[in-house]
């Protein structure tokens, strides 16, 4: 818990970082710790993951498509509802060339160079090129394309404000980045400050079931990375901690049945387009275009399968689903609030995650809020 108690202090340092960066506009230190020389003008941007479009929109607003020269198609493939919203608002997104599919291996160096790009924005790790793709990075830099790394995935609650500061610098949107980071810091502190006062003995045990329905075997989870960080920040004890090494892995279903957690949280990868896996396992549907009734019905359907029915919190209605893509977006602070409100309803009686989400869209997104991003098995947030 100590790491989350100092997050506010770390994010306070982000504002100092922004001030320092504005004095040195020709270079930036990215999330890989690299000092990157920036072009005089950034006019042609490649996105290593198009799911970063909402993050760019925080800074670019109505000018979002103006500098996009190419992108991977992961946004439209993994979050078709969210992409449809952006496509409606910015029809020109359909005309931006795609530079691969949904993996680093498919990323086309030749295509990028032909587009005349001057900046590439990559994630430390993810669907597109990462910090380990050294040959690609070197080739881009030799061709005059500056490469910067950001991160909403490995250590999201620490690296989100740092990443937004870097994006603000490279895009010349320092003021916009500072405004967003102040909002982010305030909203995260509303959780971490309260959680710090709750005895750990009062934290509920939680199983985080990643991408429910995607695999025949059970049960995939996240631990030391991605949404695994959200559980602890919200005051929950991740039952996979110490049992599943690394960022993610599988926790045996028999263990969940014999040693049931107090709460069960599934991540939702379903949408109107993708409602079930190839083996016909139901997905939980959340996100853009999904109403609460549809979301709840999909959660009940997805957990009504052999084995899972026997897991006590599912059987007793102490189940929740949350939008899977929270792990890779600056919206992640809203997920932490929603989890905290559900884990500790008495302590967070005044916290309204729905209002925070609405404010995020109203202030920082050029598309409207349309859909629900978490849902519980029961009508009330038990």
TrEMBL record:
Do you know which InterPro entries this protein is assigned to? Answer: ABC_Transporter_SBP (IPR050902), ABC_transptr_periplasmic_BD (IPR002491)
Domain (Fe/B12 periplasmic-binding): give its ranges.
44-351
Give the coiled coil ranges: none
In terms of SUPFAM superfamilies, this protein maps to: Helical backbone' metal receptor
PANTHER family (alphabetical): MOLYBDATE-BINDING PROTEIN MOLA (PTHR30535:SF34), VITAMIN B12-BINDING PROTEIN (PTHR30535)
Return the protein name: ABC-type Fe3+-hydroxamate transport system periplasmic component-like protein
């Amino acid at each position: 818990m100590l790491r989350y108690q100092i997050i506010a202090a770390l994010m306070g340092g982000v504002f100092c970082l922004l001030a320092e960066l504005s004095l040195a506009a020709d270079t930036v230190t990215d999330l890989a710790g690299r000092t990157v020389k920036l072009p005089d003008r950034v006019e042609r941007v490649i996105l290593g993951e198009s799911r970063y479009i909402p993050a760019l929109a925080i800074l670019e607003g109505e000018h979002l498509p103006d500098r996009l020269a190419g992108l991977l198609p992961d946004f439209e493939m993994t979050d078709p509802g969210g992409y449809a919203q952006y496509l409606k608002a910015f029809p020109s997104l359909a005309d931006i060339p795609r530079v691969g599919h949904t993996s680093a291996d498919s990323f086309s160096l030749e295509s990028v160079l032909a587009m005349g790009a001057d900046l590439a924005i990559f994630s430390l790790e993810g669907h597109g090129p990462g910090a380990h793709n050294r040959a690609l990075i070197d080739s881009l830099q030799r061709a005059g394309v500056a490469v910067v790394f950001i991160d909403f995935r490995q250590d999201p609650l620490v690296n989100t404000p740092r990443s937004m500061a870097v994006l603000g610098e490279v895009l010349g949107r320092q003021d916009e980045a500072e405004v967003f980071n102040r909002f982010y810091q305030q909203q995260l502190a509303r959780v971490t400050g309260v959680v710090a006062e709750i005895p750990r003995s009062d934290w509920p045990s939680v199983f985080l079931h990643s991408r429910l329905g995607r695999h025949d075997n059970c049960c995939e989870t996240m631990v030391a990375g991605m949404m695994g960080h959200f559980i602890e920040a919200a005051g929950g004890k991740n039952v996979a901690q110490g049992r599943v090494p690394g960022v993610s892995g599988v926790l045996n279903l028999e263990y969940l049945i014999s040693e049931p957690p107090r709460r069960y949280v599934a991540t939702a990868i379903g949408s109107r387009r993708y409602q079930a896996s190839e083996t016909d396992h139901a997905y939980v549907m959340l996100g853009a275009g999904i109403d609460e009734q549809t979301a709840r019905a999909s959660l009940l359907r997805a957990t009504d399968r052999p084995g899972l029915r026997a897991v006590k919190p599912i059987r007793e209605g102490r189940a929740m689903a949350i939008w899977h893509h929270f792990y890779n977006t600056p919206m992640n602070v809203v997920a932490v609030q929603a989890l905290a409100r559900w884990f500790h309803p008495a302590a967070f009686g005044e916290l309204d995650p729905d209002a925070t989400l609405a404010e995020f869209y109203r202030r920082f997104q050029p598309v409207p809020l349309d859909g629900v991003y978490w849902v519980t098995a029961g009508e009330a947030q038990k």
